[in-house]
Amino acid sequence: MKPNFILVLIIGLSLSCKKSNTSPSHTDISGNWRLKEQLVDPGDGSGALQNVFALNIRINFGKDGKVTGIMPVMGDHTQYIVRKDSVISFYKVDLPQSDTINMRYRFTSRELTLIPPCYERCIYKYVPAGD
């Protein structure tokens, strides 16, 4: 009787437990961002992050999926979609299934880091524009 009771207790406890998601999804990158640092490696691994905050280069991610501003690798891609917690796809409004640029990213409330598909290593770090 005791082994059955313990088995029923263990099964009951395991079924009553819910798995909680303690790490929130960071996919809402919408807003105005200002380029703080960029890294463009010359190909020999010697590249380092350079402060470019004074240049006032901005990018805006709209809640409607539109992106505006300046980013070298983006070209004329004016739409974006966050595919998962580490990939953003940029595309042209008239060609959503072709000519897509997939970019890795990292996001916190204080910083957005974009890692485009460059031949040599390149990284763009943005901070909230504050306006």
Write the H/E string, N to C.
Answer: HEEEEEEEEE
Q: Number of domains in the coordinates?
A: 1
Summing up helix and strand content along with how strands pair, one would put the structural category as: mainly beta
Oligomer: single chain
Q: Report the β-strand fraction as a percent range.
A: 35-45%
User: What share of the residues lie within helices?
Assistant: 10-25%
Q: Identify the overall geometry.
A: globular
Query: What is the CATH architecture assignment?
Result: Beta Barrel
- Poorly predicted regions are 15-26
Mean pLDDT: 78
* Total number of strands: 9
Largest sheet: 9 strands, antiparallel
Indicate the radius of gyration in whole angstroms: 22 Å
CATH class: Mainly Beta
Distance between the termini: 69 Å
Total helical elements: 1
Task: Summarize the structure in words.
By secondary structure, this protein is mainly β. The protein has one domain: Lipocalin (Beta Barrel). 11% of the residues lie in helices and 37% in strands. The chain has one helix and nine strands. Strands 1, 2, 3, 4, 5, 6, 7, 8 and 9 form a nine-stranded antiparallel β-sheet that branches. The radius of gyration is 22 Å and the shape is globular. The N and C termini lie far apart (69 Å). About 9% of the residues have low confidence.
